[in-house]
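Before a colleague's protein record goes any further, I have to sign it off. My question to you is simply how this chain folds and whether the tokens agree. I do not need a full report, just your reasoning and any doubts. This is what I was given:
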Amino acid sequence: MKSSVLNQLSLYVSESADLVMSGDKTNWSKKVSTFLESTLGLEEAKTFQDLDDDWNSEGAFFAQIGRLQGLIAQGEAETENNLGSDDNVAHSDIQQSTSNSNSRKVFIVHGHDNEAKEGTARFIEKIGLQPIILHEQASSGQTIIEKFETHSGDIGFAIVLLTPDDFGGVAGAPEVAKPRARQNVILELGYFIGKLGRSRVCALHRGGIEFPSDYQGVLYVEFDDAGAWRMKLAQEFIEAKIPIELSGLISS
């Protein structure tokens, strides 16, 4: 991927940070889609557009940001592997990849259930991987979205904890409200699907929550008290070709 394309994709990601709280997300999405079609082809533009069909407006926006981050990472990896050709930038100009299929870092998205968060993090450590929890990372003067993008960069897998922290339902019918995960958790779920692809995202759920209606094709695993979720999650790492320490399964 040419350096000019990578630079423009990076600019679009930077623009998105200013649109998180307010701004014309629809215009941004159309602009990016047009650019993708002209540079990377109709298929990539369609993939980007399809994310808008699978989520509500906020969720689609985060999923599309994630998709751009994934494309940037792919382009930078290609550049690093093909240094010396006319279309590549100098090695000193290559930024750290924003995602890494070989990374042992696992991002944990969570709500208010500290037991689920800590239990997942400790298991990840036992099998030889590195859990990344956003509030434990240094802010370095960044906004929330900038901090999220920074620390979700060099990861190989994401675990999203869907726990019953909120209630919601159809407007005007409070009697049918159901437990839901927090909105930020659903947004970050979409982001990681766009960034990593469905095969590298696993949702652990508990408490009979309402699942996102458009969330299809990504693995749900029940966070059960018996601990069967650990083996199922370990199998997902193996399928994703992320090496784990099997001895950690015995001691967990």
